[in-house]
Specification:
Blueprint (H helix, E strand, L loop, with lengths): L4 E7 L2 H15 L4 E8 L11 H6 L4 E5 L8 H21 L4 E5 L3 H12 L4 E4 L10 H11 L2 E4 L2 H9 L7 E3 L3 H5 L10 H4 L4 E5 L10 H12 L6 E5 L7 H13 L4 E4 L4 H9 L3 E4 L2 H5 L7 E5 L12 E4 L3 H14 L14 H14 L1 H4 L12
Parallel strand pairs: 1-2, 1-4, 2-3, 4-5, 5-6, 6-7, 8-9, 8-11, 9-10, 11-12, 12-13
Helix pairs in contact: 1-14, 3-4, 4-5, 9-10, 9-13
Length: 384
């Protein structure tokens, strides 16, 4: 009888879980695979909505809930979180082995798990490597995880080439598109809260801190709110910022703002389909989330991309970049209102059947794992 391949997917946020959900379902339904989910970070925090329940409701087997503190007031606190996560992940992998560990992206807590897995000689499949976000520590975390990983699923050809440029074997680097660009098209309306379906004439707002620039997050969110305050005839739905350093400053200021503005609403977190439904039916997304770059174009929605958080990413024609000041944001909103009915977005991250492609390629990799892990990974030198 064929032995099951034991795979772990490690997730720390609603966002990264939502991106891979359809891919994970395909793996989970495969009778040759024993898929386990390891949860950490904001998924286990009541402050961020305790979103681990979404994974449980989807029927996945959760192998571990590894809690870490998420005090985001100072960089030193973020570093302490990384240290605690590394210690706990190291203990976990000491006693729990997997044939393959799958990680997505660039979160600081995910880097701790990548280090622990690599030190325990567990092969890593990294999703969304090779991308650039120059204003955030995500930038160097992402490239660091690339160097600890054996396999790579990139979202664009340029990013795949960049992974090879980092010394990764091109035979292990695959441009399969972005899961999120396809995933957002499969909205399960029965999972959309009724209060979301009742919303009309609104903008979605999702704003995160920049963590590698010297800008003040309070000053930045005040500029965003200054612009929003000029549009009393429209509604604005704010979503909670992620668990990056200084995110509490942004979340606290927004909560104060909505108390005095009746055309605003704050939602801490949403299930994946709820978020995509909200975004699809909004006038546009205002903020600096990667979902505005990767997912919103597939939904036919403009994105007003503020500041430098996403600087360096490939962007489609529906992305309006703007500086983080009140007047520029107002002009961007006016541009959207003038053109929102005529948008024909091109999404450079979209490929049809992306989840299926991820699943089939993963099966191929599992078949050659023994060969690829027989010797230590070497640095692939490109011709200079």
């Amino acid at each position: 009888m064929q032995q099951l391949k034991k795979i772990a997917y490690i997730t720390g946020s609603r966002a990264d879980y939502g991106i891979v959900r359809r891919y994970l379902k395909l793996l989970n339904h495969d009778k040759t695979i024993d898929l386990r989910i390891i949860t950490t970070g904001a998924l286990l925090s009541n402050t961020y909505g305790h979103q681990v329940d979404l994974i449980k409701n989807d029927g996945f087997k959760i192998d571990a809930e590894i809690c870490v503190p998420l005090n985001s007031n100072k960089v030193s606190e973020t570093i302490k979180t990384m240290a605690i996560a590394l210690n706990k992940a190291g203990d976990w992998f000491e006693n729990n082995k997997y044939d393959l560990v799958i990680l997505l992206g660039d979160r600081f807590e995910i880097m701790s798990f990548a280090i622990a897995a690599a030190m325990h000689k567990l092969p890593i499949l990294h999703l969304h490597g090779g991308e650039a976000t120059y204003a955030n520590y995500d930038e160097f975390i992402r490239h660091s995880i690339t160097k600890m990983s054996l396999y790579h699923f990139a979202s664009c050809d340029k990013y795949a080439k960049r992974i090879v440029q980092l010394g990764e074997n091109p035979n292990n680097v695959f441009n399969l598109g972005a899961l999120g660009a396809e995933n957002c098209l499969f909205i399960e309306e029965n999972n959309v809260p009724k209060n979301i379906k009742d919303l009309k004439n609104y903008f979605t707002v999702l704003f995160h801190p920049e963590t590698l620039t010297n800008v003040n997050p309070l000053e930045q969110i005040n500029e965003v709110l200054c612009a929003i305050q000029k549009f009393k005839n429209y509604n604005f739905i704010f979503l909670g910022s992620n668990a990056d350093t200084y995110s509490d400053v942004i979340r606290g200021r927004i909560k104060d703002f909505i108390k005095n503005n009746s055309n605003t609403k704050y939602i801490e977190n949403l299930p994946t389909s709820g978020y995509h439904y909200l975004l699809k039916n909004s006038i546009c997304l205002i903020g600096n989330s990667s979902s505005g770059i990767i997912e919103a174009p597939s939904l036919g929605v403009y994105t007003i991309n503020i500041g430098d958080r996403q600087k360096g990413r490939i962007k489609g024609n529906s992305i309006i970049d703007t500086k983080c000041n009140c007047e520029d944001i107002i002009q961007a909103i006016l541009t959207v209102l003038d053109n929102s009915k005529n948008i024909k977005p091109i999404n450079p991250y979209y490929k049809p059947n992306t989840a299926e492609a991820y699943y089939k390629k993963t099966l191929e990799l599992l078949k050659k794992l023994n060969k690829d892990t027989k010797e230590p990974k070497i640095f692939y030198d490109i011709d200079l």
